Amino acid sequence: MNALPTPEPVASDGASPRRLIGLKDAARLYSVSWRTFLRWADAGRVPWGFKIGGRRLWSLEELERHIREGCRPVSRVRR
């Protein structure tokens, strides 16, 4: 299996930088196809992520925490 690329840190307002990953890398963390991951995100099974421009991105730390906590459905679903 391919290793995930090192995500680029994104500076925020004085807090530590967030590491963001794209759809295919997020799906790879869960060992599913990118289409399945996107469907799960839209259904609230995994964090929705957020959009910057036209790209949907996820916080690597948030996804890792979600996996550690047993992949419980998330409470907030965006549409």
Automatic annotation (TrEMBL):
SUPFAM superfamilies from the UniProt entry: Putative DNA-binding domain
Q: Where is the Helix-turn-helix domain?
A: 23-69
Q: Which domain of life is it from?
A: Bacteria
The record's annotation in InterPro entries points to:
DNA-bd_dom_put_sf, HTH_17
Name of the protein described by the UniProt record = Helix-turn-helix domain-containing protein
Q: Which organism is it from?
A: Tautonia plasticadhaerens
